[in-house]
Design brief:
By secondary structure, the protein is of the alpha+beta class. The protein has six domains: 69 residues; 117 residues, Ubiquitin fusion degradation protein UFD1, N-terminal domain (Barwin-like endoglucanases), CATH 2.40.40.50; 70 residues, Vcp-like ATPase, Chain A, domain 2 (Roll); 122 residues, Jelly Rolls (Sandwich), CATH 2.60.120; 89 residues, no CATH class; 93 residues, no CATH class. It has a six-stranded mixed beta sheet. The protein has a five-stranded mixed beta sheet with strand order 13-15-20-17-18. A four-stranded mixed beta sheet has the order 9-10-7-12. A hairpin with a 6-residue loop joins strand 22 and strand 23. The longest helix is centred in the first third of the chain and has 71 residues. It is flat, with a radius of gyration of 41 Å.
Length: 717
């Protein structure tokens, strides 16, 4: 009995323990579930709170952005995201889609003047939420770099904006994306007119540019705005220079349209990324002090030197000579270098474009004052070109007293030659002419000289040479088979390569070096000229399309640049720059140059073109051997065309068709104002009886306007 009771008791206790354990486990599970539910609820509440805070922040940011956009746009709201497309161009003007024009015009943005836009990069950033189960991502627009721009036209595709290189670079997209597109934000803003700018060159080379004002005006003519931090890339003589905008007034972003700005160009940022000093391409060279250097084959090393006013006057008068020495170390190899010299504004002379050069083998000397080109006060550049191998050299510029060089001597060569001429006149008493060397020799030593001369000397029989040489030197004396120049035998190969190997110009012309230099100085459309209107050194371009501009000797660039208008100083009328002298002569009685620029009736057209083009300046001279003859001549009144060599037909056509009808019409007019009649009667050729305001400065005939005066000069003069 007791055994059964104990077994029952143990069973009961075991069942109770099992029940308690199950109850405890159930309670633990329920507690854990409640804790997890509480955590989930807490996370949901936190996410909701964060979302509400972010939404409130986004709403506040949007409101602030809206207020900022409205304030920047002076009440006009335009803030769009576009896909930016890099396109070639010069300046900072965008191409926007047509919808942008509609939206802006609906807000009367056109009535507020020029439109400006703030351009920035719209980048995406991902942020993770605090939830342990999932991550939430959001896109946030961030304005990293920004700049300002104008608008060129509204012709871009919808959703895209075409961005020129200047804007593309200054918003931080210089390298571009893999697809060539970038998301940008374009916001309409109003900008004040700039009054002051401080610019810092990125390297010290810009200080050598002769006319900073003209270079900056040419660059900013294509710009609408400027912002602090922008990098302006200006070009002079085909070389790019970077200018960093350091300061602007009255704001950090200003308009450069129709405003006069004071510009300071401060010291260059002449430190490299590693902190070392950046070296200018033009190394300064003092007169009388030499510098050494090394130039690899096919590369240039440039130097600059200046001639002051005192030395300049002495050099111009012939009292002093200006010499450039280049000593080349030729020992141990065939290394050699050539030297090219250019007068500023030519900063970097090359074998295609230079004023002086020397290609002698080994060391060489250039006497700049013996070239026939005027040399005086100014700055000059020297280019040392590695002709073959890596060459060590020493360059020296010195000023010496002018000494008459012996006739026949070739400056810069190592061998000396004698001259067949003499300061004595043939037939002078006491002298006799040697038949071998053609020298005048005193009678007392003539027999001795003749015996010695016939034994040791010989005359070169090459046409136009006649140099007397030692018989041992005659073996080394040769002449170029193409140009006939006298050379040493070891110089012939280099001479042929330098002077007779064809060179290809960027315009497509293939010429030898001397012809190439003339080509680049006179007729090449890629040649650099100093524009008479903007003062900058720019590419000349092809011949002017306008016939009158060609008669005046204007290049394509000058024809376009001269078409810009500027207010007349006297009457404040907007006059084209190329017509300003005509306007002043006709309307204000000022000096005019039109008489020397226009054709006369008796002068053939083909004979005048070369003269007038050469009169325009050395930058646009035309060789006399190749006068310009137009393929056809067009009547400036009825546009009838005549062959280029039939100029008499054009003159007869104008006289019979246009001038006769003009005289008949003018003879029937009556005077309506006594004041005008007195003005007209002062000119005997004026038969016009209407109210006339402009008189021709050549013949005195009165016409109605400057446009009529222009037509009158074309027809008559």
């Amino acid at each position: 009995m007791d055994f059964e009771l104990r077994a029952a008791k143990e069973k009961y206790e075991r069942e109770q323990r099992d029940k308690k354990e199950k109850a405890r486990q159930r309670l633990d599970r329920e507690k854990k579930l409640k804790e997890e539910a509480a955590k989930r609820q807490e996370a949901i509440d936190a996410a909701q709170r964060t979302r509400r805070i972010e939404e409130a922040g986004a709403t506040l940011d949007a409101q602030q952005r809206q207020e900022e956009v409205m304030w920047l746009g002076d009440g006009i709201v335009f803030d769009k995201d576009y896909l930016g497309i890099p396109v070639p161009g010069n300046g900072d003007k965008l191409k926007l889609p047509a919808s942008a024009f509609s939206e802006l015009s609906s807000q009367n943005a056109l009535d507020k003047g020029p439109m400006f836009f703030k351009v920035s990069v719209a980048s995406e950033r991902a942020t993770a939420s605090s939830s342990s189960e999932s991550n939430a991502y959001r896109t946030e627009d961030m304005e990293a770099n920004h700049t300002h721009a104008g608008v060129l036209e509204f012709t871009a595709n919808e959703g895209f904006v075409e961005i020129p290189p200047h804007v593309w670079q200054n918003v931080g997209l210089a390298s571009g994306s893999s697809s060539g597109l970038a998301k940008v934000k374009v916001c309409y803003v109003r900008l004040p007119k700039g009054t002051y700018a401080k610019l810092r060159p990125e390297n010290p080379d810009f200080i050598d540019v002769p006319n900073h004002k003209a270079v900056l005006e040419t660059k900013l003519r294509h710009h609408a705005s400027m912002s602090v931090g922008d990098l302006l890339t200006v070009q002079h003589a085909g070389v790019d220079y970077g200018l960093r905008v350091m300061d602007l007034k009255p704001s950090s972003s200003v308009s450069v349209l129709e405003t006069d700005m004071e510009v300071d160009v401060v010291g260059s940022g002449d430190n490299n990324e590693d902190g070392s000093s950046a070296q200018s391409r033009l190394l300064p060279l003092e007169l009388g002090k030499s510098q050494t250097g090394v130039v690899p084959e096919g590369e240039y090393r440039y130097y600059k030197f200046s001639v002051d006013k005192t030395n300049g006057k002495a050099i111009s008068s012939g009292e002093l000579s200006l010499l450039v020495h280049l000593s080349v170390e030729t020992s141990g190899g065939a290394a050699d270098a050539d030297v090219y010299i250019g007068a500023h504004p030519l900063l970097f002379p090359t074998k295609h474009n230079h004023d002086w050069s020397s290609h002698d083998k080994g060391s060489k000397v250039i006497m700049m004052t013996s070239s026939g080109r005027e040399v005086g006060e100014g700055t000059f550049s020297i280019g040392v070109y590695g002709f073959s191998g890596t060459t060590s050299y020493q360059v020296l510029v010195e000023v010496k007293q002018a000494v008459q060089a012996p006739p026949g001597q070739k400056l810069g060569t190592r061998g000396s030659v004698s001259s067949p001429s003499s300061s004595h006149q043939q037939g002078e008493d006491g002298f006799e002419k040697c038949e071998n060397c053609a020298q005048l020799i005193p009678h007392r030593t003539f027999a001795l000289h003749e015996a010695y001369c016939r034994r040791h000397n010989v005359i070169c029989k090459h046409p136009n040479c006649g140099i007397v040489l030692r018989k041992t030197e005659m073996e080394k004396h040769v002449h170029c088979g193409k140009c006939g120049q006298a050379l040493q035998r070891d110089e012939l190969e280099k001479h042929t390569k330098v002077f007779h190997e064809p060179l290809k110009c960027g315009c497509g012309a293939v010429l030898e070096m001397e012809q190439m230099v003339d080509h680049r100085a006179s007729v090449c459309p890629l040649r650099q000229i100093t524009c008479r209107f903007c003062g900058d050194m720019v590419q000349a371009g092809a011949e002017a399309e306008n016939v009158r501009d060609r008669y005046r000797g204007l290049t394509q660039h000058e024809s376009s640049c001269g078409s810009r208008t500027t207010p007349c100083d006297t009457c404040r009328r907007a006059i084209m720059l190329k017509e300003m002298d005509l306007h002043k002569a006709a309307a204000h009685g000022g000096p005019s140059q039109i008489e020397s620029s226009l054709l006369s009736d008796s002068t053939p057209l083909s004979g005048q073109i070369g003269k007038i083009t050469e009169h325009a300046g050395s930058n646009v001279r035309v060789a006399d051997s190749q006068p310009y003859t137009p393929s056809h001549i067009e009547c400036p009144i009825c546009s009838r065309k005549f062959d280029g060599h039939e100029t008499w037909q054009l003159n007869e056509h104008i006289n019979t068709v246009h001038l006769s009808s003009q005289e008949e019409a003018a003879s029937g007019m009556q005077v309506e104002s006594s004041v005008v009649e007195e003005t007209v009667n002062r000119f005997p050729f004026s038969t016009t009886k209407r109210t006339l305001s402009v008189a021709c400065p050549i013949c005195g005939m009165a016409v109605h306007s400057e446009r009529d005066l222009s037509s009158h000069i074309d027809m008559v003069h």
